[in-house]
Each structure stands twice: as C-alpha cells, then as structure tokens.
Design goal:
By secondary structure, the chain is α/β, with parallel strands linked by helices. The chain has 8 helices and 33 strands. Strands 21-22-23-24-25-28-30-31 form an 8-stranded parallel β-barrel, surrounded by 4 helices. A 6-stranded antiparallel beta sheet has the order 3-2-4-9-6-7, with no helix packed on it. Helix 7 (about 545-560) runs parallel beside helix 8 (about 605-615). The longest helix is centred in the C-terminal third of the chain and has 18 residues, at about 410-425. The relative contact order is 0.09. Alpha-D-glucopyranuronic acid binds near residues 439, 495, 525, 590 and 592.
Amino acid sequence: MKLLSARMFARVIAPSPRLIALVALLVALAAAPGAWSAPAPIVLTGADRRPATSLNGEWATIVDPYFSGLFSFHHQEKSNGWFLNRKARPGDPFPTEYDFSKAPKLKVPGDWNTQHESLLYYEGPVWYERDFTYQPRERTHIFLHVGAANYHSWFWVNGQKACEHEGGYTAFNCDVTSAVHAGANFVVAAVDNTRHEDNVPTLETDWWNYGGLTREISLIEVPDAFIDQYDLHLSRGEGSAIEGWVHVAGSQPGAKVEVEIPELNAKTSADVGDDGRAAIHFSVEGLKRWSPDTPKLYKVAVRAGQDSVDELMGFRTVETRGTEILLNGKPIFLRGVSIHAEAPYRTGRAYSDKDAETLLGWAKELGCNFVRLAHYPHDETMLRAADRMGLLVWSENPVYWALEFDNPKVLAKAEQQLDEEINTSRNHAAIILWSMANETPATEVRTQFIETLASRARGLDPTRLITAALLVRGEGHTKIVDDPLGKALDVIGANEYIGWYEGKPETADVTKWQIDYQKPLIMSEFGGGAKAGLHGAETVRWTEEYQADIFRHQLPMLNQIDQLRGMSPWVLMDFRSPNRPLAGIQDEFNRKGLISEQGEKKQAFSVLQKAYKDGTIGKAE
Ligand code: GCU
C-alpha cells in the first residue's frame, strides 16, 4: 500500500475549501443533474483595492437574439448550452452550432452598442467567452469579480455555473473556487439587456440601454477566512473617533481584526463576534477631515488573519440641522451638476479613470463641490475620482419613473441593488447622499415601496443622508413640493423644468415655491436643451442662447427659496437617449448638457460657472 505523503495526510485530516466545494457540487448535481443552481453572488467591499487577475480585454462574442444558447425550443434551460464552450468533434452524433474560437471579439469592459454599428439598437442576449490560465493556491477562495453587467447575466467557469445576477449597475462576486483549476480555464458569460416591466429600472428610461460587460472583470483570490465587508467612518459629534465594523466570512468567533492608519500612528484591534463582525472604535490624533477644499485621503489597512485590504479613504461627517446640511459640523451649499455615466467623446457606458477624470474635471471647472450621479450607481472609478478630486456625491438606486411598485419581486430586486450599492461603496467620503428614486408617481403603493427602501438604507448606513428626486406640482405660478414621500427623506430633491417643458424662461421670474417640509432642499434637476454651436435669438429653442437664458432666470428664482441647500442642474454632458430622435438637433442624444458629448461648452456653462465662482447662488444657512 502506497504510504500517504504528509500533504496527502493533511488533505485527509483537513480537506481544503476546494474539496468541500467540489463534494457539495457533486452532491447537488447527483441530486438533480439539471438543476443548474449556483450560490448567490456576494458583495466584496473594496474589491477594487485587492490584488486581482484582470480578465479585461478582448472576449469572443456571439449575439443570440433567441437565447438558443441557453434555452431549448420548448424554452427549457439547457444542460448542454453554449456555456460548455464545446468544440465540434469528427463523428459527433449531433451538430455543434457555435464556436467561440471563430466568433468576433468585443472589448471588456465596454457596452456592445458603441463597439459595433449593428449592435447600437440591439437589446437581447449576447454570449461572451474568454480563456485564461490560473494557478490556484491552497486554502483560498477564488471570486469572479464583475464590476457590472447590464442587465441580467449568467456566468460559467469551465462549463460549471458560477452565478446569475440581475441589475446592470452594481458589482457582484461569484465564488468559482470549485470550478477553476491549474492551467488552462475558460469563462463564459451570457448577458441579456432585454427590458421587462418588472425590471429595475423598468421599460422606460431617458438613457440608452447600453448592454454588456460594462465594467471591469477580474479574479480575486482570498484566504479561506476573508474580509468581505467593512465600514469605517468618523463618528458624528465627537472630536476624532473612527468607528464601524469589519465582517470576516468564514472566521471563528474571537478571531482578531486590526485596523491601522499608519500616517496617524493609529491602530486598533477587535474580536470577531458570532455574527462574523468585529466592532471598531478608536480615537485618532491629528486627523485632517475630508472636504471638497481638502480632500485628504489616508491609507487604511484592514487585516484579519491571512487577509488584508489596503484602503484609501477620507473621513468626514455629514448630517442635517433643520433645513441645513452640515459637512464636518459646518453648513454647506451644494454647488452641483447632474451626470450620466456616458463616456465623453467616444460615447457609450463610462468606466475608465479617464472618463471619470474628464467628467469630474469639467464639474470642477464649472465651480462644483457636488455631483448628482444619475440615475444608477456609478463605477468605483468615478467614486474614487470624486474622493480624490473633492466632489461630494449623490448616489442613486435605479428606481426610476413608474416601476411595478405593487410587485414584491420588484421590491426585492430594488433592495438587492440597494444592498449592493451601499455595501460596495460605503467607504467613499465623497458620497453623502443615498437617493432612493427619481420622479416616481405619488401613489400610496409607491410611497410604501420607497419608505421600505429608505428604512433599509438607514439600517445599512446610518452615517449618510437619505434623499430622492421628487416631482413637483403647480398651482398657478406657485410650485408646490408636497409629495408624501418627503416625510421619509432627510433631504428633499425636486425636479422642475420651467422654461423648457413648461412656460418660458422668464416664467421663473414670477414663480413662487411652497415647500411643505422643514428640511434641506436640493433642486436636483432643471435646465433645457441646446445643440452645441447652434446660435440665434434667446427666444429660439435649441439655441445656446435659449438654454443660457433659462439659467439666467432660474438662478435668481432658486435664490428666493430659503431652504435651498443645493442644486444639480440637468445635465453636465449630452448623453444618448432613445427618446430623442429630433434629426439635426438631438440625433438620439438628450441635449440638455452644458457641454456636448464632444466636449463643446455651451453658453449656459459659463452662466452657471460665473454664479458658482462668484458665489452669487445659494445660501448654506
Ligand atoms: C427627467 C428625468 C431625466 C431626464 C430629464 C429630461 O426629469 O429625471 O432622466 O433625462 O427629465 O427630460 O431631460
């Protein structure tokens, strides 16, 4: 009998996570071979700060409008679908009617719509395949990290289902430990951006439904006990105490967690409890608080056992006091602009540092200290850039217009996306506002739906402010903000289009505002369209002069609103929208940008810039 080597002996005594996962899979498959269920993906806070094996680059793709790669002619999920990445063999008793090795390539990250003219309008499933080599280490978990995939996505590694995910704007991580092996591997993804009524967002949006693997993809390897989520923030009120928690998946109660800020000579440790969490609270000397004027970031090491995450983050407090917003205890006015994640110049879904630097660079040039990232969670690259450049952020869950508010499945989807948004991005000093929704109808069922989300967000993160962009109603020349949802919010957002969808620009001069809440108000949208370079009388729509005139009348009106504590006019840059076909003017772009998608600044840019730089707009208290 062959003697067992020490290593083999160790394996018999303490089987590795890989072996456990493999056995669990075999048991599941034995139980129901067709049941292609896979563990739900998880959220990894600070995933972009971890060492990773990038899977970005060219992926083979097959457009599959009838989804025949996954569903049979009787619409049953196939067990021999294209996820097997099968190659035809001579003598096969059946045809193999796809071959990724011969398929065209698309870049990842990147939407498919702007990479190939024939795909600009395409809504449906697209298959992606990529080969990679890997050397797994012992006693580790391997996660397939997906920055975002719009809208519904499925992932397989070496033919084994890794995960399924719904939601196009949040990151998720699929455990592929049992599927990855040493040497050559392949990953297959199916991404379907077909719009459905019960999606979040639903059928109608005023932005292009860019499909695909729109953000970075990588493999992240962590020890068997690893830090999956953590929250570190400056406690309100007190001088400088940092508090929060660190959750360690797969840890033993009593295991140690450490948090260190070397630059401040500050270090603390805490024990993990039964729930895998270690509570953090320690005082620090000499901390420089983060603010738009001083966007100070600190290296923060979070350690637990074999695992560690090296964060780069700022510390600040945000709260309200009556109708004021206090940043680090001082009243602040949010000089902002709204931004879609549309890539400048090349168009398509933004994802890169360069995209973020360009968009936020323009916002800084405008004189902003605040940006509303609409209408869905933006990329971590954008949030890191906001931390670095000193821009406060409104981050929004894509509860947009008229969802199926009476459908519990839709609520569950909105909750899942909210959890992913908050748990992924909770350590960005820049984010001060979680927005629950935009322009939803003031019905009872809608209010309950969003109140549920708002209390969930408060439970997940009591350190930030909850808001939403509300529709306003009018009586004569009075605009009234009394949507019942306002009760559930810390800060009221309101959208109005005086001078564009209603009235003339000068109508603003005679408009009064009635705000039924003693809370800070942010005018989260106002503005009008203009084709860059189109000039004429200021009474002529679509000219730069007309758009500039809207702003010239809006600013004094807004200055009349006592509790106005911020604004984010619509919108920094023109963006692609299926609702905007006006030939020669819109050409499928929403033209309310202060800058065109080709970087041409319109007159309104200078009107707002002057007001922001002269400080003639807004009162912090
Ligand atoms: C709405 C909406 C935006 C839209 C804008 C517009 O208020 O929130 O998503 O793009 O108006 O009509 O331009």
